[in-house]
Amino acid sequence: MHAFLALLLLLAAPAAAQPRAAPDPDWPCVQRLVSRIGAAALWPGPAPEGNWHAEPAVAALVGRIAPRSVPEAEGLAAIAEFAAPLDPPARRRLLPLAFAGLLEEANRQRDTLIEQIRRFTRRQRDLAERVRGLEAELRALPEDDPARPELAQRHAFAARGFTEAERTVRYVCEAPVQVEARLGVHARALWAAMPRE
Amino acid sequence: MPPALTRAAMTALLLLGAAARAETVLVSNEKDNTITALDGETLRVIRTVPVGERPRGIVLSKDRRHLFVCAGDSDRVEVLDLETWRVVRHLPSGPDPELAALHPDGRRLFVANEDDNMVTVVDVERAVVLREIPVGVEPEGMGISPDGRHVVNTSETTNMAHVIEVESGEIVANILVGARPRAVVWEADGRRFWVSSEIGGTLTLIEREGWRVAGQVGFAVPGVPAEAIQPVGMALSRDGARLFVALGPANRVAVVDTRTRQVERTLLVGQRVWNLALSTDGTRLYTTNGVSNDLSVVDVAAMRVTRSVPVGQAPWGVVVRP
Predict the structure, then answer these.
(1) For testing the chain B interface, which of A170, A177, A182 should be mutated: the one with the most B CBs within 10 Å?
(2) Which of A92, B119, B228, B311 could, after both became Cys, cross-link A34 (CB 3.0–4.6 A)?
(3) Given this model, what pLDDT does residue A9 score?
(4) HSE (side-chain half, CA atoms, 13 Å) at B27
(5) Is the confidence metric ipTM above 0.95 for this complex?
């Protein structure tokens, strides 16, 4: 009975933890969902202008370091290598463009991750629904019903699945933050390579 | 080196050390479970001290010898000795303490327990719970009036600032503020206090007389989506003329004129800026940046960000020890 109560509480918890003003019911993270990273949150200068795709060197740099699998040190080395031969006017023109490209890619990566997190929430909601349904079935069944052991096992299995997934929420929510952190590292390196007035 | 010279050199070194360590900046690192101590002059890391799990709120003791550390995932407040750099005691705090405020008497620590909707009052000398005060859902911010008569607690989910009379422990006012209120900062004369609202994206100014809302402040940063502007930590300038407000994932600190309530400017700092502290002389503002894992330093007179100093993983709280 104790375990049963604990589970009920667990099932109730995600709903209770959800702040009332949260605009997105599919967003399970403590931190409010920020749909996209704005340039002004990372770039100290004027908003970068121009089409980064049209600059082959910039597009190559973005393509090389934007993927999440590229280690931070490798990204920083590539930025240094990119900036080294450029004179001040070229830096002023190309470095903001490179930032614009990395920003666009980071936002795209975040979109995918955010959609995955939303799917995770919906899956958890379905699973919670199933646990509740199995619970109701169990309650309705007489103690000595022969179908009970099998039903109890299904219930325990579903409940465990739900609980285990719920424990990963904190980590799941970290993924978009990591994209943001990575972009920040690149942005600061690009800005540091800008000519000082 | 002759002994006399060695001694002179040693003395000089010690003196230099003493001069350079006039003040210490202390930072809690939420993911590393450590406190970073930095020299207030050079901003070099002096040491990194392991503490309990998920340290967030940190408060200096009245005699400045100890640091109270809210270790949320360890469900306790730890007492870090700032001379020996060891955790010397634990205080009972209730579950998941997130932040705390020390009464001007130096004895009563008011702790917000995010998980059980209580404010716990702890005697820091005897390490006993004096009182538990039921408040709104998910208590968070805590601000004690300069005269010590009232403590204001915000509750994240109830969207209220609860005014508690310290002596009786009774709630004397519940004031509706913006969504998910976080920090509380009293002005020095004790006549008004400010509440930041993370999801509402606003500040609410409340007058003590009649516990009345005196005004609201909103923010807009061109090139940053509105939902990224999440006001959290706050600090008043030494003269009280300006309020600095950390705007979370907008990565900016807003500068608000406390008289006109106008936002004068926003300064770009590190990523996900959580909390703020001024140097003792008020010339520098330190910000903890939870995603870029650094401390930004703002030159207050020039209103410029001058440095970024790497600290631990996910820095959260910051306190300056004179």
Answers:
(1) A177
(2) B228
(3) 40
(4) 38
(5) no
Q: Flag the least confident range among A56-65, A168-177, B281-290, B302-311.
A: A168-177
Which ranges in chain B belong to alpha helices (H)?
3-20
> Please, which residues bridge with residue B145 across strands?
none
Q: How many CB atoms lie within 10 A of CB A112?
A: 12
User: Looking at this protein, which amino acid is placed at residue B215?
Assistant: G
Query: Per-residue b/e over B221-251, b at no fewer than 16 CB within 10 Å?
Result: beebbebbbbbbbbbbeeeeebbbbbbbbbb
Alpha-carbon distance of B253 to B246, in angstroms, equals 5
Q: What's the mean per-residue pLDDT of chain A?
A: 88
Does B271 contact A181 at a Cβ distance shorter than 8 Å? yes
Residue A61 has pLDDT above 90, yes or no: yes
Q: Do the Cβ atoms of B28 and B315 come closer than 8 Å?
A: yes
Residue B38 backbone dihedrals phi, psi, to 5 degrees: -120, 145
- What's the confidence (pLDDT) of residue B89? 95
Please give the Cα distance from A79 to B263 (Å, whole number).
36
User: Rounded to 10 degrees, what is the CA torsion of B261, B274, B235, B140?
Assistant: 90
Residue B302 in this model has a pLDDT that exceeds 50: yes
Whether the CB-CB separation of B229 and B220 falls below 8 Å is answered with yes
User: Please, what are the domains in chain B?
Assistant: 24-50+224-322 (2.130.10.10)
How many CB atoms neighbour CB B63 within 10 A?
7
Give the minimum alpha-carbon distance from B180 to chain A in angstroms, rounded to a whole number. 8
Which has more pLDDT, A190 or B11? A190
Question: In this prediction, what percent of chain B has a pLDDT beyond 90?
Answer: 86
Which residue segments constitute the domains of chain A, with CATH numbers given?
Answer: 45-192 (1.20.120)
**What values do phi and psi take at A3, rounded to 5?**
-65, -35
- Backbone torsions φ then ψ of B19, nearest 5 degrees: -65, -40
Classified as helix, coil or strand, A8 is helix
- Quick check: A20 pLDDT over 60? no
Please tell me which of A46-60, A140-154, B277-291 the model is most confident about, judged by mean pLDDT: B277-291
DSSP line for A53-76 = GG-HHHHHHHHHH-STTS-HHHHH
Q: Which residue of B has its CA nearest to A36?
A: B225
* Cα distance between residue B68 and residue B87, in whole Å: 10
Question: How far does the CA of residue A106 sit from the closest CA of chain B (Å)?
Answer: 15
Whether residue B141 contacts residue B195, with contact meaning beta carbons closer than 8 Å, is answered with yes
Q: Two tokens at B113? A: 């327990």
Q: CA-based angle A174:A25:B250, to the nearest 5?
A: 50
CA distance B226 to B31: 27
DSSP code for B248: B
- Answer for the pair B231, B248: CB distance below 8 angstroms, yes or no: yes
Between A and B, how many residue pairs show a Cβ–Cβ distance under 8 A? 71
